[in-house]
């Protein structure tokens, strides 16, 4: 769909008026700004409605185009937090060996430019956060970029074989693995410092491998956890950093309790783990609850039912969102259902 037609359709979809569900009716909650709504939810205070955010990939060639798409999305759907996707690649090794990496001032200069454009375009209207792949996920992407994998089809079977091969690399070449993870982690921390200076209120950091297909709990603790924790420590002074557990199985749930992450998110849909289970171990605000996998099939009523159930389990410290990004090919009408489900 051409950009102009998309934006016109998006604005029309997002402007559908529905009855506002009864929520906060106390003094000061009737006309909250985006930032006020988020701040009150983070503290567990009464709000007029839960703050919400959702997002998908754009994969635009320039920072300015990428930023404009984020700004247009925010304005069309009235999101309370702008999560800036990072669709730019980490620079590969120049030595011919994927793991021979050195720390960089920032591996994502285009992403930093995108953040600046978003900041300027928002003009203080809403908080914005960066998106960061955890060190393991970055290493896996670099590993998959090797020539022997270049022409393989993209399928679950192929990815599972690559994950197995990468795990064997960890075991047989631990020095190479830790060299790569150290460089990636320090580069990521350097990038975080720049993003904070720009004004980002944190980052959604994707921890990709809290699931047995990537290795055991002990493997995670040995090969990945120290690097993940350092990334979150670099973000400890931010308001909206999200521990995003992209994959999650129950044996891994408690491994992140000492991570200084202000917000936690996982996919209820893919993990089968209810928010109420996570709440037993984590007290911080929760982001998520809406089905991201079958998002396009959900009606307004179903989305409302999902975020309502999520908030009941999470408590007042809750931000409505899918468990991860919604499909990139979602139509404006489908995207418009989420704000409608919140009474917008």
What does this structure look like?
The chain has a single domain, classed as TIM Barrel (Alpha-Beta Barrel). α3 packs parallel to α4 and α12 packs across α13. It is built from 13 helices and seven strands.
User: What is CATH's topology name?
Assistant: TIM Barrel
Output the radius of gyration: 20 Å
Order of helices and strands: HHHEHEHHHEHHEEHHEHEH
* pLDDT < 50 stretches: 1-8, 11-22
CATH class division: Alpha Beta
Beta-strand content bin: 5-15%
- Shape, principal axes of CA atoms: globular
How do the strands of the widest beta sheet line up side by side?
Answer: 1-2-3-4-5
Please give the CATH architecture. Alpha-Beta Barrel
Overall domain count? 1
Tell me the distance between the termini: 25 Å
Keywords, separated by commas or semicolons:
alpha/beta, two-stranded parallel ribbon, TIM Barrel, 44% helix, 344 residues, 5-stranded parallel beta sheet, disordered N terminus
Topology of helices and strands:
Blueprint: H1 3-14, H2 34-42, H3 63-77, E1 81-83, H4 109-122, E2 127-133, H5 135-144, H6 156-172, H7 174-198, E3 203-207, H8 217-223, H9 225-234, E4 242-245, E5 263-266, H10 268-271, H11 275-279, E6 286-290, H12 300-314, E7 318-322, H13 332-341
Parallel strand pairs: 1-2, 2-3, 3-4, 4-5, 6-7
Task: Provide a brief overview of the structure.
The chain is built from 13 helices and seven strands.
